[in-house]
Design a protein that fits this description.
- The structure is a single chain.
- This protein has one helix and six strands, in the order ββββββα.
- By secondary structure, the chain is an alpha+beta fold.
- The protein has a single domain, classed as Stage V sporulation protein G (Arylsulfatase, C-terminal domain).
- Could be involved in septation.
- It comes from Eubacterium ruminantium.
- This is Putative septation protein SpoVG.
């Protein structure tokens, strides 16, 4: 699996959510609404989710194992950092 495109939409409002990201996998499959969150231990991603009838949030799409999740998170956070650096230069 290769992430072939990452699109970052920064959130300008105050709060913990810093961006919403879309990724393309193998130029064939897109996942929208991945959130970049600023948590107590730093930035992390939250996969797209939906609130169920019992009030719990459940991921709609997510990596199956922790290695893949780490790889996806690293790629997204790297692109987010690049976007932040470009904005700082302007």
């Amino acid at each position: 699996m290769e992430i072939t495109d990452v699109r970052v939409r920064k959130i300008d409002k105050e709060g913990k959510m810093k961006a919403v990201v879309s990724i393309t996998i193998d130029d064939e499959f897109v996942i929208h609404d991945i959130k970049v969150i600023d948590g107590e231990k730093g930035l992390f991603i939250a996969m797209p989710s939906r609130k169920s009838t019992d009030g719990e949030y459940r991921d709609i799409a997510h990596p199956i194992n922790s290695d893949t999740r780490s790889r996806v998170q690293d790629i997204i956070l790297k692109k987010y950092a690049e976007t932040e650096a470009e904005a700082a230069e302007e």
